[in-house]
Amino acid sequence: MRATTIHGPGDIRVEQVPDAALQEPTDAVVRVELACVCGSDLWAYRGVSKRRPGQRIGHEFVGEVVDVGSEVTSVRVGDRVIAPFMWSDGTCAYCVAGVHTSCPQGGMWGKRGYDGGQGEAVRVPQADGTLVSVPRGADAKLLPAFLSLSDVMGTGHHAALAAGVVPGSVVAVVGDGAVGLCGVLAAKRLGAERVIALGRHEDRAAVARLFGATDQVAERGEAAIERVKELTGGLGASAVLECVGTGPSWETALGIVRDGGRIGYVGVPHGMPGLPMNDLFDRNVGVGGGVAPTRRYLPELLADVLAGRLDPSPVFDRTVPLDEVADAYRAMEDRTALKVVVKP
Q1: What whole-number distance in Å separates Cα of residue 89 and Cα of residue 127?
Q2: Is 307 left (phi over 0), alpha (psi -120 to 50) or beta?
Q3: pLDDT at 180 (0 to 100)
Q4: What pLDDT digit, counting tens, does each position of 64-113 carry?
Q5: Radius of gyration of the chain from Cα atoms?
Q6: What is the tally of structural domains in the chain?
């Protein structure tokens, strides 16, 4: 089968690899219908996150079950399924507590020795604890929305929950990538009264407004901090979603959160200094978040998509065939695309 591999910074290839096949009785094999490129994949593309040459890549996909192991009971051949970006057994103490990303039996697609999502098929370990079935007969036009639930929508939702968004909250979202935009949508879904989106790209600002942003701040650094304070009567936001993970983005988040507020962080940390604990302590600012347990949120978010109450699909602005996946990486790195769907 064909699958995307990475061989070094900027070197993305589509190569023939061994077919995905059952190895354990708890496995399933999924034929990929749609996958996509994630902003976190770009860290490997830039050479910041190291990968072994030839390693698989991609961790977001939806597809059809084509084979199941003898112990798999929750899905069957022919089911359309959503795969969260990490697999988990669903039964350990961490999974029961909703922290599926800490499952001792878990892992992330594309890790050494495992299939990545950007390919024709994927072997899914721990299929019962991992895969979420879409009801048979669901409209195929919803596939992009389903795909967003594998990572970015669940991650934006995690940021909003970690930031303590509740009805009436004043929210600021740092980052205008797909996760940040889904954070805007998540905050609005949770009842935020005001959502301030920080970002300087008008095409992304348009998506933010579609998702419920009430204000747009195009400034950066100290100017952005001053603008948010100006918009909030000098107080800052009660809930800040940090969706980038760099030092400058954290400086902005810390500068715009009001005393007594919370920062929910989901941006993968890169070059971030230590938190100013004395300042957080003095201002009663809470910090929470981390890698999002999207498997925990999938059933709830899927129900809203199926009911027509939630549509994160506008974060996808381009579709390419699998053979052109390298173009998808270049487009996202050059910021000429927000998030690209890959169709095997």
Answers
A1: 8
A2: alpha
A3: 98
A4: 999 999 999 999 999 999 999 999 999 999 999 999 999 999 999 999 89
A5: 20
A6: 2
Q: Which residues contact 108 (CB under 8 A, 6 or more apart)?
A: 59, 85, 86, 87
pTM for this prediction: 0.96
pLDDT class for 271, splitting at 50, 70, 90?
confident
For residue 313, the enclosing domain spans: 2-151+293-343
Q: State the first-to-last Cα distance of the chain, in angstroms, to the nearest integer.
A: 10
**How many Cβ atoms from other residues are within 10 Å of residue 54's Cβ?**
13
Q: How far is CA 3 from CA 16, 110, 206, 323, in A?
A: 7, 10, 33, 9
User: What is the distance, to the nearest Å, from the Cα of residue 307 to the centroid of all Cα atoms in its chain?
Assistant: 22
With a pLDDT cut of 90, the percent of the chain lying above it is 96
Q: Which of 289, 309, 326 corresponds to the end of one domain?
A: 289
Do the Cβ atoms of 215 and 195 come closer than 8 Å?
yes
Whole-number Å distance between alpha carbons of 298 and 246: 27
Q: What is the CATH number of the domain that holds 190?
A: 3.40.50.720
Q: Quick check: 331 and 340 in contact, CB under 8 A?
A: yes
pLDDT tens digits, one per residue of 112-161: 899 999 999 999 999 999 999 999 899 999 999 999 999 999 999 999 99
